[in-house]
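Supplementary notes for students who missed Thursday's class. We covered one full example, reproduced here. Read the sequence, then the structure, then the short commentary at the end.
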Amino acid sequence: MPNPIGSILESQNVVILDGALATELERRGCDLNDPLWSARILLETPGLIRQVHADYFAAGADCAISASYQATFEGFARRGLNAGQAADLMRLSVKLALEARDAFWRVPENRAGRVKPFVAASVGPYGAFLADGSEYRGDYGLTESQLMAFHRPRMAVLAASGADILACETIPSLLEATAMARLLEEFPGTNAWISFSAKDGVHVNNGETFAECVQALENFGQVIAVGINCTAPQFIPDLLRSARGLTQKPLVVYPNSGETYNATLKRWSGEETCQSFATDARVWFEAGAKLIGGCCRTNPEHIRALKLEIPLIQTSQHLER
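Structure (token representation):
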């Protein structure tokens, strides 16, 4: 895989990521109260996934993240699908994003002032397969080699799927991140970003400091960006500042909308606004973020507002030079 992040950052200051996929599918009427979560829609209504990707590109996203976060061989086996069928669905998740990207890029007006968007194949943590909220804790009780064995088959499929990069996301612990980084070495030419989920402005969910995690990944050449996702926006500035100067890799952030999720009740609470999300992005950029998007409960309107904010960020940086 090439390095789409580096290519885009040569021509603009920020890479705009997309927003949530699963909660956006819910907003459009899908029932995701299922261990497969968004992967369920790969089975039932794949065209809707393609449409969500298309809407994010239209809103200004430079990247689509595939619907493979919770797509695992073990999870599909529970649904009665064999390994071949499971692999086909993983490949489908990337195909839908590529189709949406290519359709968007074929329209000349869409190319004006834009870089060609890229597609990241989502690789969720082990806890996402468990579907019990443990990806927000990381207390699996597994060794690094056991985690590598779990991730290996899916990563093999996604590395050969046509995606431009892998997005190893919502990783709760340094142990799992290191397992994934080491596993990348089995797929030469495959690049990834690794983003952690954090519980406060210092620590990832399993308790290590974000700074410690960033430093530990610095020498893994196939990890081409590192950061934070699925985390409350108010924690993002301090997390970013704690990592500045510790890495040469671009920092990526795509927090949730600011609402709080109760994993037991499977319910969101609190408030969010698109405009404050976009305004906060300037603070994240100033704290070091080079890739910015949204996670749970964000939608195309958040990304559209972020896109409008980006010229202000770029102008501000230009004036400071």
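Commentary. The first helix runs from residue 4 to 9. The two ends are 33 Å apart (CA to CA). If anything here is unclear, bring it to office hours.
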